[in-house]
Amino acid sequence: MTARIFHRIDVALERYLPEQRLFLRTDRNTRFIRLSPSTQLIAFGGSAALVAWAMIATAILLMDGVGAGNLRDQARREQALYETRLNAMAQQRDSQAVEVSAAQERFNLALDEVSKMQSALLASEERRRELETGIGVIQKTLRKTLAERDSARERSVQLAARLDGTDGPEKVARGPRPADVQAALAFVTAALDQTATERDTVAADAAAAYDLAEALAYESELTAERNDQIFTSLEEALTVSVAPLDKMFRAAGLSTDTLIDRVRQGYSGTGGPLTPIALSSMGNDTPPSADELRAQGLMARMDELNIYRIAAEKLPFAQPLHSAFRFTSPFGMRRHPTTGTMRMHEGMDMAAGYGTPIYATADGVVVKAGWVSGYGRMVKIKHDFGLETRYGHMAKIRVTEGQRVSRGDRIGDMGNSGRSTGTHLHYEVRVDGKPVNPMTYIKAARDVF
């Protein structure tokens, strides 16, 4: 049955593909191979399929080459844009650091001026009290002198009456002598003149003291206005400096209140020799002034800014690579490059040239520096606040276990060790042992560092 079908097919195709014979001759005999129409059709079909497959494969390769060129151009453009943005952020960070330094200098100058004005005010207060005490003593003396003058006048009237004989002969005989009366009157008159002179002097001193008090009050008002301007400038500078840091920590999912408390607990050491307490002449119960309260608030804000700086150095906000690189695999579920199965990728991959320097992204202690299955040559750094970073597939490790590193220290070179398909860095960030997306920290610090 099958032979008939093939025979009918050969008969139908013989008009277009006649039977061919291929002769093979040797020295002893001659043989031939018979090529039926169906055999020729199969050969022609296979050749055509092979040519079509070659053309399609060539087209696919050309399209891949064109696409790869476009991707490389796009990667170069993105890299140039990213480098421009990094340079702009670095310039902005430097300008903000200069502004903060200038604001701190202005604040120190303001504190010196406030201290000088407080000393001047205390001295003027002491002088005013001394003047008030002197005026009181002079007034008391003046009242006593006036009373003595009045009594002396009455005595002189009585003596004059006795001299005139108005009080009777017996009283005149027993009265004082005229010479004594004249001497007493001269003494009283001199005392009155001296008292009047002293009264005029005291009045002049009091007027000068009031003028000095008014001048000091006016100068105090000017100083208060200057202090207000200085405090306002410092408050604005601190607000501008603290706001981006606060935004950065919140974008990274960190509680700023908890962060500040933990940094203060780790940096809370105090001490020093005992020194005598200097008591103020204003008393211990005097409430702080408005300038003192504002100064205390500024010191608190500057302490908060310093705490943010300490925390930023201890958290992985920096980039592990300072040279050009390409993101080859993000954080999250992906198809495994070697097994082909869907698995969780607990970090991100950054590809660059072999031997590219790798840097620590925050201050910490190296707890692992060696070969780890899957990671190859790997460095693990433990940071504060329960964070750790991992750097895998290195070509060379440049740190040792137990070594303390700072942000920006070189810890190794990029390589292809471990389970890897090419030269790249596998970078992880873990919080309390759980992996998190490293781009959360890198994006959070994009507008600050």
Main features:
449 residues; alpha+beta; Glucose Permease (Domain IIA); 10-stranded antiparallel sheet; two-stranded antiparallel sheet; 59% helix; 17% strand
Could you explain how this protein is built, in words?
The protein has 449 residues and is α+β, with helices and mostly antiparallel strands. Among the domains are: 122-264 and 289-314; 321-444, Glucose Permease (Domain IIA). It contains seven helices and 14 strands. It has helices at residues 2-13, 37-164, 169-174, 178-251, 256-266, 290-314, 438-444; strands spanning 20-25, 30-35, 326-329, 332-335, 342-345, 348-351, 357-359, 364-372, 376-382, 387-397, 404-405, 410-414, 425-431, 434-436. Strands 3, 6, 7, 8, 9, 10, 11, 12, 13 and 14 form a ten-stranded antiparallel β-sheet that branches. Strands 1-2 form a two-stranded antiparallel ribbon. The longest helix has 128 residues, at 37-164. It is rod-shaped. Mean pLDDT is 78; it is low at 168-174 and 276-283.
